[in-house]
Amino acid sequence: MAHGSRLVDLVQTRIDSFLDERSSILRSIGTDLEPLDEFSRRFLSGGKRFRALFCYWGWEAASGTGFDPFADGDARDLAPIVSAAAALELFHAAALIHDDIIDRSDTRRGAPSAHRLFERTHAEAGWLRRSDEFGTSAAILLGDLVLGWSDELLDEGLALLTDRAAARAARAEFNRMRTEVTAGQYLDILAEQSWHRRGDDEQREIAERVITFKAAKYSVEAPLALGGLIAGGSAPQLSALRGFGLPLGIAYQLRDDLLGVFGDADVTGKPSGDDLREGKRTMLIAVARERLASGARALLDELLGDPALDEAQIRMLQRTILDCGAVDEIEGLIEREVANARAALVDAPLSDVAKAELGSLATTVSRRTS
Known about the structure:
Farnesyl Diphosphate Synthase; mainly alpha; globular
């Protein structure tokens, strides 16, 4: 994974240099904007960089360039794909900032979420009106700012491509991803608040649609396709990348759903059982509802989404979901989707190096603990 480690370093360097350029604009307006600079840097440092890695390996899979991460000159040749990978990380940060507002999450990666940081800034300064209202408003603006920056960074990278058809196709892919993930986010909040108007037989289908458009496409499939398009990949290559990316993206989110209920707070950076307090209508919950007797299902429905759930109630719900076999079924679904993803690579017209790295990433994202 030396290539991946080197790529992560290149992406972080590109993000830092881009933020340096944009912070000069903020500073020219006034010192009151320093929190926008500080908090944007905080949310754009570290992280697993899965989207950036998938973007790069989509490019390598289609181009077969055999990138040497330590060779002089390669970093210059990689400028378009590094900028695109960095743009994905900015887009992801913007999505997380907005997602935490929607979910009313207090933490992100073990630290305060953006709206809580702005809320604390307001309270410590002793400004007028409510700190929580200021925090929400300021974080929405920060998310919008970073979202706009992701477009700028992508365009800077695509401008370096001599293949203008590839640049246009990559831009169209990014635009589609942006629309799909926003639609998926809406479907997610709709599911949380309208599930009682839907039949029990619809719950799994609704959860599958949310997984596909809120997470699977934007986490894995779109980054792979973006990289492949920047490389000028052929239709069979793009089809193979998508055939690998969508099922792996579903497995990625199914693991995330398990971590949202059973994850170790010291590892995930979010309280254990947070999805239960937030009322997430995930595939895990849909499967549990199918398996539970009517009384237990009614209790799950009653408690799910109560932000005041105490630790004893969280443990009780965790045990209920575990004992009914829902976790085992989700683990089985993860295994099936990863197998589907691997099968898409077997005879794919992609570079052997990329196939091996993508196979390794499939293991990493489907078995992760945070």
